[in-house]
Each structure stands twice: as C-alpha cells, then as structure tokens.
Amino acid sequence: MTRVGTLGTSIRVGQKEAQILSEVMNLSLILVCCVDRGPPSVSWLLRGDQKEDPRVHISNCRNNTRQSCSMLVIRKVIANDTGYFTSFYGQLPAQISVPFWSLTSKGAVFQINVLFPADSRNPFVEIHPEHPEIIYILDAKKTVVIPCRVTSPDIKPKDTLLRMVWDPRKGFVIPSHSFVYSGVLTCTANVNGSVFTSYYLGRVQNLALKATPKKLLVGETLYLECKAETFINGRIELIWTYLYCKKSRVDTTQFKDVSTVLWQICHYLSSSSFLFPDKPFITVSHKKGPYYEITSGHKSLKLAAKVDAFPRPSVTWYKDGKLIKDNHTCYEPDPMKYRLGIRDVRPKHAGNYTIVLSNAKYGLYKNLTMQLVVTERPKIYEKETDFDKIERVELRSKHKIQCTVSGNPDPKIEWKWQPCSLTDMLYRLLSSLSAKPTLHSKPLLLLFVWQIVSTLTTENSSASGIYYCVASNKIGEEERSIEFYVSDVPFGLQTDPQVTTIVGNDVRLTCRASKYIYSHLAWYYPSSEAALRDAVIKTTDNYSISLTLVITNITKEQSGLYKCRAQNQHNSTDTLEQHTHQGAEDRVLQKPN
C-alpha cells in the first residue's frame, strides 16, 4: 500500500482542541479524528449505503496523549466515495469533504477536503448515461441543483442551460425563478479526448400536506392528505415517512393514495408539527402587559391575550363586568387571535376588560383582566360658547369668572393676567396683582364626565385687562382668554336725559362710554345731521371715554332730541345709542319791587 498524500489541521473549539488527520492511500482512505479532554468518545456519521459497505470500517485508535480518537477506513476507494464525512464529539460535528480544493472552519463545523487521484474513466461521481435522473423542484424560493459532481477540480463540464453557476462539489446551480422546463438536461465532460454525458430531467410540481386536525388529544384520530400537481401522464407513487415523537402514534391504515401524486416523499415539516397532549388545558397570560394607555381620538386599538389551549376554547369579552356582544358597534372581537378591537377610541372606552376562556365539555375556565386608560388633552367647555367673551365689570364691584375643564390625567389649571395699561407686557401670574383675586376649584360629574370647575373672584374690581385660564396635562394644553374691562359707566353708554338752558347761552352735552369696549362716539343733531369734528371735544380717563358737543349761543330753533351713538370696537354690529332732550327758553326778566 503506497501513501499518496497527507493533510493535517488543528482547530480550537472553546476549551477543546480537535485534531483531524486524514491520509489518502493508494487504494484506501484513512480518517482519524482526535479530541482533547478524554470522554465522551468520537463517532462518525455515515451515508446509508456506507453503513452496510464491507469496505468501511470504524475503530478506536490508540494515542499516548489524553485524547478521544476514532479512525474511519474505506478500502479500495472509488469515485462514488466522494462526499462529506462527519465526526461527532458529543454534540459538536467535524465535517470532512472529498475531493480537496478548500480548507474552511465555520463555528463548530470543521471541513477538510481530500483530493483523490484523477480518474479519467469516471469523471462524474454519479453518472446517468442512459436513463435521466429526475430532479424535483418543490420550492420556487430555492435554487435548482443539477448534481453532476466531478471527481477532480480540473474537470469542468458543460450544460445545456444558461444562467448557471458551476460548483464542483454540487454541480450546476440554477436560480429557481430562472429555471424553465425544456426537456432533458445534460452535463458533458471531455477528459483526454473522451466525452462523458450524464442526463437529467427537471420536473416542477406543487406539493402540499394537509392535516385534519393539526392538534388533537391522545386517542383521537389524525387524518393526513398529501397532494401534488405535476405534468400530464406523470408516474404516480406515494411514500410516507414519519418522524417519531414520544407519546404519539399514527394509524397508517387511514392513508389514501392520491392519483395525481408523482414519485415523491412527503415530509412532515417542523412548522406544521403535531401536538398530542395527554389532557385538555388552557393557559392565558398578558401579551403586552396588564395596562394599556392610549390617547383619545385614535382610530383603533387592539387588546390581546397570550393563550395556549387545547382544544380551542370559546372566547367572550367583558367591560367592567358587562358582556360585550359580537354585534357591538364600537368593538370587534377576534376570537381566533384572542383579541378585542376598539374603534374610534374615546374616554368612554376606559375601564377594565376581561377575556373569559371556557371549555364546557372538559370543565375548563380561565379569565384575564387588563386595564385600559384613555388619556385626553384638556378641554375648556366655555370656549365652545363664549367666542372670546367680553366681561364688562362695574368699578368696585365683585365679579366671578369660571372655567370648566376636563381631561385625563386631571389637568392643572392656572390663571394668568395681562393688564391693558401695560400693552408691552406678556402674561403675568395673578400674584403680581396688588388686589389679588381668589381661586376655587371643585370636581363635578356632568354628562358622565368628571370635570373641574375653577372660579376666579375679584372682590373690588378696579383694573382692566385679559385673564387667561390655562389647563394643562402631559397630553397637551388648552387656553381660554376672557377680556375683563372695568367701567364706571352704567350700561356702557351714558348721557343726561334732559338739559334746559336759556336762549343765548352756551350748552355742553356730554356722552360717556366704557373704555376698551366702545369707541367711535358721535353726536347727532335733531335734524339727524352728525356733529362736525370742530364742534366736539374728546376726553379719556381711567375707565371711560367722553365726547362733549359744544353749542354756542343756543337758540330755540336748536332745541330738540340729540342722539349719542357708540360702536363696540370688538363687534361692529353692536351699537349703543342714548338721547338727550335739549330745551332753550327765553330769559325771564324780573320786575323790580
């Protein structure tokens, strides 16, 4: 026996050192795997045809060091022996591949590739010169492999399709979306002038495995159905394999052949694994925690529970102890996913929600409660009706201003003040006022909504300005402004109702209006003609504005009803009018005594 080549490598795995030695003899392959630290022992994973092959022998090898060693010997190696050899140390695999053109290490998988002497008579590991090998394509997301592997990296076969990638360890690799059925596929290799051809036939088919039901109790019957779609006149054969699990069994007598199934093994995938519990059960827990918080106005919210149960239980939902019916306009129960949808979330939806799971047949009942808190930005109700309401307050009087607020969490209410006399000042807290108003707040339940009523009271009103009611919480802020004008003019506009004078005297008719509220004062003669600018005198004091009409050397003809008009500077449609009757009499001469 003549030695052709030797390859060795040493790779560290955590605290363990593994040494894989391989020797290729003229007619035999010897693989040795040694691992430090002693037991557990090293084992080998063989292909199905190698397990009964008399040429394959596994034995423990002696080593003077404290190592676990195992030797795999394959006598009289042939081209078909090309492939992967895997040794195990405990749960760690070490993989060896033949032929040799790379040396790689990936995690706990060690791959050593050993080169056989080129065999010009057998360029392909497996050759199909007469009957095409059928290639089944079951998953459109995976690649299609034409398995014309070669015994030497120098052999580069040709194929009949384009868009292929050559991998000497696999064959030709074709993206599945690029594969189009076109009859027989060929791999051709030219070795020393000799042409070798291997034939393959691609078949695209849809394979599906249906279980009824997927979950069932021990003792119940399971039905499986395997279907496949293939080409016309395709051959039919159905083979079942079963991955055995403890405490479960399958009655294969219930399986029925399906005439449209091509030669194929129907594997049961782990994504569709069966559950055979010993007895029915229900377990439920919070999926996102026991507390939900959402801001009012959201279009939807889903409350969900994490449920593991078999058989599937019936599901009902309760809000604050009251049953939520399936046809409720605000709620959308989803029993399949153990969820409850809430549409157009509002404060009225806040409360405790309970999911009740029941299986009356087996006497199983479980429930779980979760709390929903609906937060809401502050709302000031007076803003909906007052439209920047103006408060006219009599001088030295007591006056109250009110703000009714709701929100969640409860808003904090703060009052601010901006005096008219200081136009360049921004908001100021009420503490800056010399005559401080009093504040009082109390909760109130109106229309099923808790509201806070805050009242500001001025005991001795003397300053004009704007009060601001500011309500805020973590969601947002709302503000209401109240224009607060102190006046010493009753009813906003005032004139003397009757003025009498002597013909020839000068007369002054005065009209007074509340300051900051009314402007554009004007006098009108009895003829309804407006008094000219040079006939009137304007004056302003702390609480009012005045317009005085001066009539010099009055005559009887000037007697009559004079009118004073004032226009609201905040509302152009609001006009006040007051009348003064002016009378002129002749001078009465007194007779001497």
From TrEMBL:
<dbReference type="GO" id="GO:0005886">
    <property type="term" value="C:plasma membrane"/>
</dbReference>
<dbReference type="InterPro" id="IPR050958">
    <property type="entry name" value="Cell_Adh-Cytoskel_Orgn"/>
</dbReference>
<dbReference type="GO" id="GO:0008046">
    <property type="term" value="F:axon guidance receptor activity"/>
</dbReference>
<dbReference type="InterPro" id="IPR003598">
    <property type="entry name" value="Ig_sub2"/>
</dbReference>
<dbReference type="InterPro" id="IPR013783">
    <property type="entry name" value="Ig-like_fold"/>
</dbReference>
<feature type="domain" description="Ig-like">
    <location>
        <begin position="280"/>
        <end position="371"/>
    </location>
</feature>
<feature type="domain" description="Ig-like">
    <location>
        <begin position="490"/>
        <end position="577"/>
    </location>
</feature>
<dbReference type="InterPro" id="IPR007110">
    <property type="entry name" value="Ig-like_dom"/>
</dbReference>
<protein>
    <recommendedName>
        <fullName>Ig-like domain-containing protein</fullName>
    </recommendedName>
</protein>
<dbReference type="Pfam" id="PF21339">
    <property type="entry name" value="VEGFR-1-like_Ig-like"/>
</dbReference>
<feature type="region of interest" description="Disordered">
    <location>
        <begin position="572"/>
        <end position="593"/>
    </location>
</feature>
<dbReference type="InterPro" id="IPR036179">
    <property type="entry name" value="Ig-like_dom_sf"/>
</dbReference>
<dbReference type="GO" id="GO:0030424">
    <property type="term" value="C:axon"/>
</dbReference>
<dbReference type="Pfam" id="PF13927">
    <property type="entry name" value="Ig_3"/>
</dbReference>
<feature type="compositionally biased region" description="Basic and acidic residues">
    <location>
        <begin position="576"/>
        <end position="593"/>
    </location>
</feature>
<dbReference type="InterPro" id="IPR013098">
    <property type="entry name" value="Ig_I-set"/>
</dbReference>
<dbReference type="InterPro" id="IPR003599">
    <property type="entry name" value="Ig_sub"/>
</dbReference>
<dbReference type="GO" id="GO:0043025">
    <property type="term" value="C:neuronal cell body"/>
</dbReference>
<dbReference type="GO" id="GO:0007156">
    <property type="term" value="P:homophilic cell adhesion via plasma membrane adhesion molecules"/>
</dbReference>
<dbReference type="GO" id="GO:0050808">
    <property type="term" value="P:synapse organization"/>
</dbReference>
<feature type="domain" description="Ig-like">
    <location>
        <begin position="378"/>
        <end position="487"/>
    </location>
</feature>
<dbReference type="Pfam" id="PF07679">
    <property type="entry name" value="I-set"/>
</dbReference>
